[in-house]
Specification:
single chain, 408 residues, six-stranded mixed barrel, two-stranded antiparallel ribbon, elongated
Length: 408
């Protein structure tokens, strides 16, 4: 009976606890690596996707040059007011807003550090926060277009975390200095504080008027780093993006720019994370192979030790299939035990990485150990164990009763 197979298999495993424990370590390490690495990779992928989705699928980002990594607008080529006008005239565009970015030195009291300064349009400073849902005002309000010299800051600057341990807090109306071009420095006043996004770079940024930005960094009046486009409801975003690319190429006389929809950006990240997850699974699979070999070795040893026992079982009526199933159950059980322990440790490691990420300022990250991942890992560990036990189990089932009984 099925219950008899289980009872005999578990009884045999209990008699060799130390050896079996050492055997399952390989499976534990393999499954632990699979669960931890995939939960971290999947969690990172889901977290990044969620942040991009907050921006909205109806958005298009235009950048100068080719940008693969880094913040929007980090390409070498610049966009101009003429480009912005061309984009605004494209059918299906609900509105286009230009922005600029630069990393520079900020000083507050006796502390200083390098962070990103982002320029928002003078006529619609608050509009940038309305359009990009990732950035929300927590305290204060965006400055009016006539309030030059007033800025918004990220939560890490406000809390003092940006400056290091026990760094000074910055509140509404706090004054600090930003270094500009050609040794230029200017004092700014905090008018609003942006709610934490979970990204240390964004949470350490300064958001100012475009006119203040150009004056601070001696930037040309008609140049920008990036253009954000919102597509009208009912229009196909990809079609609008293609038309923008065609119009800009005709206007500029070159294709030294990049037009990306949010769906394209998300798909690119999904592809990168997909490849990363495959690499991580491949690395973890090496440990599973080692664990499978360990199970095979243990079952072979068990067959040799229990040759006379196999002879007795066959002498009293046990069939070849009965012997085969018993040893396969033992191998599968070893795999299951290793899988359970490995899953538990893998989930724990994923949560440790999540905690460390939160401590480092990446509060948006969450390790994702889904039920499908756990169930799949357990099934895989059982299958690995049973496959590893096939050959020694077949050898045990084919022993002749007379030879087995005479075995010493």
């Amino acid at each position: 009976m099925f219950t008899d197979y289980i009872r005999i298999s578990l009884n045999n495993l209990r008699q060799r606890k130390l050896r079996n424990f050492l055997t399952v370590i390989g499976i534990v390490i393999g499954i632990m690596a699979v669960v931890a690495l995939i939960s971290i990779g999947q969690g990172l992928q889901d977290s990044v996707r969620e942040e991009f989705e907050k921006i909205g699928y109806d958005k298009i980002i235009i950048q100068g040059g080719v940008v693969t990594y880094g913040p929007p607008g980090s390409g070498a080529e610049r966009l101009t007011q003429k480009d912005l006008d061309v984009v605004n005239d494209v059918r299906g565009v609900d509105g286009a807003t230009a922005g600029s970015y630069k990393f520079t030195l900020v000083k507050y009291k006796d502390n200083e550090g390098v962070t990103m300064v982002s320029a928002n349009p003078d006529e619609d400073f608050a509009g940038m926060f309305d359009e990009l849902e990732t950035y929300q005002i927590e305290f204060g309000s965006p400055p009016d277009k006539n309030e030059r010299g007033k800025v918004c800051i990220g939560s890490r600057l406000a809390s003092g975390e940006f400056w290091g341990e026990e760094g000074p807090e910055m509140n509404l109306r706090s004054k600090f200095t930003i270094a500009g071009g050609r040794g230029n420095e200017k004092e700014f006043t905090v008018n609003c504080i942006v709610k934490e996004t979970g990204s240390p770079d964004d949470d350490s940024s300064v958001y100012m008027f475009m006119s203040d930005y150009r004056e601070l960094f001696n930037e040309p009046l008609d140049e920008f780093s990036v253009i954000y486009v919102k597509v009208k409801e009912g229009f196909n975003v990809d079609a609008v993006a293609d038309e923008i690319a065609e119009e800009l190429e005709d206007s500029r006389g070159n294709d030294d720019f990049q037009v990306s929809t949010m769906e394209q950006v998300i798909d690119t990240f999904d592809q990168v994370f997909g490849i990363l997850n495959m690499v991580l699974i491949g690395i973890a699979a090496i440990s599973l192979v080692v664990g499978g070999i360990g199970i095979m070795n243990t079952v072979y040893t068990s067959v040799l030790e229990r040759t006379r026992e196999i002879g007795v079982m066959k002498a009293i009526g046990a069939r070849n299939n009965d012997i085969l199933v018993i040893f396969l159950f033992e191998a599968g059980t070893l795999g299951l035990i290793g899988g359970v322990i490995g899953c538990a440790i893998g989930i724990l490691l994923g949560k440790i990485v999540e905690f460390l990420a939160h401590q480092g300022g990446y509060s948006f990250f969450e390790a994702n150990a889904s039920p499908e991942l756990i169930a799949g890992s357990l099934m895989f560990s059982i299958v690995v164990g049973m496959i590893a036990g096939v050959l020694p189990s077949r050898q045990a089932s084919r022993l002749k009763p007379v030879d087995a009984l005479r075995y010493e």
